[in-house]
Input
Amino acid sequence: MKSSTIFLVLTLTVLTLSACAPVAPAANVATAPAPAAGALDLTFPDAANLRSQLAYGIIKLDGTSNAITPEQAKTLTPLWQAFLALSGDETTATEELTAVQNQIAQTLTPAQIQAITALKITNTELNTYYAQFGVSLPTPVPGVTKVPGSKQNMSEDDKLATRTAAEASGLPTGGGQAAKTLLFEKVLEYLTPLAQ
Output
């Protein structure tokens, strides 16, 4: 009885250890490194952030040889949905957004990443895109860090007067969460029918 118990314990231990061992990749499977969001260029003047480059770049690839495939769209759609939901939650950690951003980048082929990089998407270009939908976002000034709450001391009357003057002059106005997520909503509008 003791020998069968010892044999059973040893067998279970060996099986447990073998289940935890790393599996070597098959010899006939190509294991190229997946592209990372960090492969996109942020060094050119007025470069858009990585998330915006990915979203707008995916839209801009439509109709090219590097367009998103239906299979990729099936993977990308839930990732962008998650990104949109996380972007709308003030309690979301930056690391969570970065993790989803990296999953999105890893879904793209190296050729697609290169094509997006070659577009050199700028904040000015994005503002032109946003204006088509009646949204105006401030373009970051290179080398200047935006101070959060800089309009915090502005009275509600002054804020209303500024908004009214912008609307009267024909300038598109926008802001808030809708403006921050517009690009992500647009990439979802592009991907969703493609995924079906």
Summary: The CA atoms of residues 14 and 187 lie 49 Å apart.
